[in-house]
Amino acid sequence: MSPPTTTSGPAVELRELRHRYGEDEVLRGIDLVIERGEVFGFLGHNGAGKTTAINILTTLIAPTSGSALVCGHDVVTDRDAVTRQIGYLPSEVRLYGHLTATENLVFFARLSGVADPEGAAARALEFLGCPELADRRVGTFSTGMRQRIGIAQAVLHEPTVLFLDEPTAGLDPDGVRQLRETIARLNTELGMTVFMNTHLLSEVARVCTTIGVLNQGELIYRDSMAETVRRFPDEASLEDIYVRVGQETA
Ligand SMILES: Nc1ncnc2c1ncn2[C@@H]1O[C@H](COP(=O)(O)OP(=O)(O)OP(=O)(O)O)[C@@H](O)[C@H]1O
C-alpha cells in the first residue's frame, strides 16, 4: 500500500456542531479541529454522543446545525468527496460470514470503485499481517480476526482519515496490543489520520497523539497526549480522566 495523497488543511473541523434526536440534544455545539497526521482519541461515557459524531463525520447522518468538514469537504454538501477520503470501522464489523476474507474484501473494493480489487485485497491482508486468512470463511473467525478484516476493508481504498468506533470492544489483551500496533503503522507508514472513539482510553492512550473528552454532548477537554500525561501524572489509569476533567471544569 502506498501513502495517501496529502494536501494541506485540517483532517477534521467541527464548528458549533449540534445534533438532536427528537427533543434530545446529544451534541451541544462542538468546536474541534484535528490536524492531519494525528491519532485522535475521542473519549466519553456510553451515551456521551461519540457514535453520533462519527456518524455525522462519515456522512451517515446529517447534523441538526453547525458544520463538519473532513479534509476541507462539508459532510452534507460535499458528501461524495468526504466518502472518498474516509475509511470507517463501525463498532460492529459488518462482513459476509459465508464468504472468505478475500471475497469480502474484493466485494467491498468493487463497491468503492477501487482499481484492481484483488490486488488491493491482497495488499490489505498483507499489511494487516494476516494473509493466511485470505481463503477462510469469515463466519469461522474470532472477534480479533473479524476486526482485522474489518480494518482491511476500511483501508482498501487508502483513505486519508480512518474512523474507528470503539475498536477495542470484545478484544482480548493480545488483540488490543495488535490493534494499537496496527493503528500506529497506519499512521506512521501510510500517513493516515485516525479518529477513534473509546470509553477505555487506557487501552489506546499509548497510540493517541491527542485526546478529546465528550461529556453529555459537550467537548470538555482537548489536548495533546503529552500534555495530558503531564497534567494527570498520578493517574494510574486514564479511564476515569473524564470524571476528573468534568469535576475541574464544573
Ligand atoms: N437513532 C437514535 N435515535 C434516538 N436516540 C439516539 C439514537 N442514536 C443514539 N441516540 C441517543 O443519543 C445519545 C448519544 O448516543 P451515542 O451512541 O452517540 O453515544 P456514544 O457516546 O457513542 O455511546 P455508546 O458508547 O454507548 O455508543 C444516547 O442517549 C443515545 O441513546
Could you explain the architecture of this structure?
With 250 residues, the protein is an alpha/beta fold. The strands form 2 sheets. Strands 6-7-8-3-9-10 form a 6-stranded mixed beta sheet, with helices on both faces. A hairpin with a 2-residue loop joins strand 9 and strand 10. Helix 4 packs across helix 5. The N terminus is likely disordered. It binds adenosine-5'-triphosphate (ATP). Adenosine-5'-triphosphate (ATP) binds next to helix 1. Adenosine-5'-triphosphate binds next to helix 1. It holds the Pfam family ABC_tran. Belongs to the ABC transporter superfamily. One of its GO terms (molecular function) is ATP binding.
- Helical content class: 25-40%
Return the string of H and E elements. Answer: EEEHEEHEHHHEHEHEEHH
Which stretches are low in confidence, meaning pLDDT under 50 for 5 or more residues running? 2-6
Relative strand content? 25-35%
How many angstroms separate the termini?
46 Å
Beta strands, count:
10
Strand order of the largest sheet: 6-7-8-3-9-10
Shape: globular
Q: Note the total helix count.
A: 9
How would you characterize the largest beta sheet? 6 strands, mixed
- Alpha-beta classification: alpha/beta
From the alpha carbons, calculate the radius of gyration and give it in angstroms: 18 Å
Bound molecules: adenosine-5'-triphosphate
Mean pLDDT: 90
